[in-house]
Specification:
Chain lengths: 216, 216
């Protein structure tokens, strides 16, 4: 392993350890000494990579943003229509937030007040919802007589942001079952029964592959 | 003013000042010196009333819980039916959270992790939603063919909790207009068009009196 490779590996370990510490105690109470020992390095090694707590938090946010945006792009590639893509994207993001501590901690840091960078990942999600609804309107998927697109977008944003907030107390709120239940409730208010029949509230298998259950 | 009255007044001023400090900086970063000076008293006077930061946070939570529960009871007294009462209650609570810093800070303290008391006001709201939906079912208000009551309750809880979370960045999310938009979206998915025609997404005037606009 070259010197550069070792440095990159240490930096990654510090980011992951910091994410665990921020996830558990929040930014204000996170301790640099716990972060360095969690990464198996000295406080000096931490300071070689990051000037202070704000710098390491910015790095966690940056990694989270990369992972969350990449997830959205991958799901978009398997896009069948805008409404299914919206449900699929929420499932994929929920899974990432459940399983990846860096994505979860970075997302929360970027939304917390007194925040240190210009990132606001909740704001990006809101733009994504608005964009998909506009596409759904273009694709003729939205039922006639439904409320204003702005009301619908705000309801979807509020409900999904609410799942993430509630999940901090109880991870069940971001489980596949709860996210599916949300779309079972919301999709019928967005589209007519004909379109609804072709939509999968649990996410389309192509866009959100699940572990295969062996048969027999 | 008797000695007791003065003490009660100082205690109230400290709770309000603490709420402002928690609201602005969060529990971890809140400073006792700012709380005492904000109440116009010495640090010694603060410590006469409250042993430490946890004790004053618990007092803020207690006051918030009293105000939020009282609001729910008052709205319940003007109850026409369970669905209207659910919308009315959310409007009244949103107004309290917007206008009363003690209710807002106490609500947030009770939901934040690492929390110090047994109160969880978000959990109480969740119970209230479940209760109203069960009543709506008893009253024959829920449309046939809608999703499971559990899915509906979770969607309403997630959307309303989401509004409160989003409001931390932008108060517009708890404005009467946004809360009304939420119910314009959610009510049609809960009930049939006949019942819907009698419901007021902006809240019924009896239960959520608004400032009168002078005419002419």
């Amino acid at each position: 392993m070259t010197k550069q490779e070792r440095a990159a590996r240490t930096r990654d370990a510090l980011i992951k350890s910091a994410a665990r510490e921020f996830d558990e105690h929040g930014y204000a109470l996170a301790k640099l000494s716990t972060i360095s020992s969690g990464a198996g390095v000295s406080p000096g090694a931490l300071h070689f990579h990051f000037e202070n707590k704000a710098a390491i938090a910015a790095a966690v946010e940056g990694e989270a943003s990369t992972a969350l945006r990449r997830t959205c792009r991958i799901v978009y590639r398997h896009r069948s229509n805008a409404l299914q893509n919206l449900a699929d994207t929420s499932h994929a993001l929920a899974r990432l937030l459940r399983e990846d501590v860096v994505a979860r901690a970075g997302f929360r840091l970027s939304c917390s007040h007194g925040c240190r960078t210009d990132l606001n990942l909740r704001q990006e999600w809101q733009s994504c919802v608005l964009q998909r609804l506009a596409e759904a309107a273009d694709e003729g998927l939205l039922a006639t007589g439904i409320g204003s697109q702005q009301d619908l977008a705000r309801t979807i944003v509020a409900a999904t942001v609410g799942l993430e907030a509630l999940c901090r107390d109880n991870p069940e709120w971001l489980s596949p079952g709860t996210v599916t239940g949300l779309w079972r409730t919301l999709l019928p208010m967005l589209t007519d029964p004909g379109t609804l029949a072709g939509l999968e509230p649990a996410g389309s298998p192509a866009a959100t592959p699940r572990a295969r259950v062996p048969v027999g």
